[in-house]
Amino acid sequence: AHEGILRRQAARESAARTYARALPIVPVRARGLTIEGADGNRYLDCLSGAGTLALGHNHPVVLEAIRKVLDSGAPLQVLDLATPVKDAFTTELFRTLPPGLADHARVQFCGPAGTDAVEAALKLVRAATGRSGILAFAGAYHGMTAGALAASGGASDVRVARLPYPQDYRCPFGVGGEPGAELAARWTESILDDTKSGVPSPAGMILEPVQGEGGVIPARDDWMRRMREITSARSIPLIADEVQTGVGRTGAFWAVEHSGITPDVMVLSKAIGGSLPLAVVVYREDLDVWEPGAHAGTFRGNQLAMAAGAATLAYVRENGLAERAAALGTRMIAQLQSLADDFGCVGDVRGRGLMIGVEIVDPEKPPSSPGGPHPAAPELAVAVQRECLRRGLIVELGGRNSSVVRLLPPLTISDEQASAVLNRLADAVAEVAK
Ligand code: PMP
User: Which Gene3D superfamilies match (predicted)?
Assistant: First the structure.
């Protein structure tokens, strides 16, 4: 079955699909961190549906919530009508919102994917401000629809200004840390205030508190506060894209909490649906300029996703899984750091909570500036990914050069499982570095 399924899908499906294209596995069963393939092999899944599975595969609490709806005779498709299931979801969602937003928030169901919520957010701030330009960051990823794609640096006719996103390892200013972040903030200010070549009438700024697809680059808290300052001073709504960082992933329920800022708009998807498709945009109620029908869509009322999502949000909150992610993530990153000490091809280890990246570089090639990082090594990264898979570990690659090995384990991962993940990754790196 394994070979036949792989062969038929390779022939039938466009190569344009992105995730895990290179992984020759056929998942047939899964529980928690573990996936079982049609070939009988078992894998530790640190891709987690690109960060969708906060509680891992088929968590009993999620399955129970889904079963309850199925057994209740409740309708599964009612467009966006109010239902008890939706009521329970929004109650739980509002309970988790950052304090500054919780009391004055509106939610708009979009759907079913993260990119739909990004699109809605961009449309909302443009309608609310009457302006049109969008501010986004180098290396960002927001999705594949026209506006989200433009904000991610792709070809589109939506007008987007690209601003510098600070990073310590490949700092565009060559200084990294707080000075690099401050330079990036000043550059942003100068672009916004340049009346000749600056950005005409920005309607909003969209940013990821940790760039995920861009290579797991956590924004510094002080830079996040500067972005809040800069946008507030110019009455530009700030949109936090928490599609990947949300629901405890980074060690806070929402990643904006690390810096204490309150965004005007939050874009949420992935884990909020408890493994089923769900996407919402949450925003300050005074931005609520939608007229009835202004943002429609057939699949905005997925009852099973709302039930699975509400169960996930409640479980993460009640079991302190964000705190757990913070503590375990810190330990995992510290242990991975020793890989960077031992192997020249591990250029950098970084992350926040259980959103972890290991940048693979070519130690044979000289850094482009003295003391700077070695060039990224995408082919070595693919080799590490392949060696991981041979050892029963699924990891994803990301980053501007596809040279960052990404770990997004479920927040429920045990200490023993985390050790197994780290050991397999270390063995894979050692093999490739031979
Ligand atoms: N925003 C961010 C930060 C993401 O990581 C992603 C997906 N990786 C998206 C938006 C788009 O979500 P989707 O793939 O569900 O459209």
Answer: Aspartate Aminotransferase, domain 1, Type I PLP-dependent aspartate aminotransferase-like (Major domain)
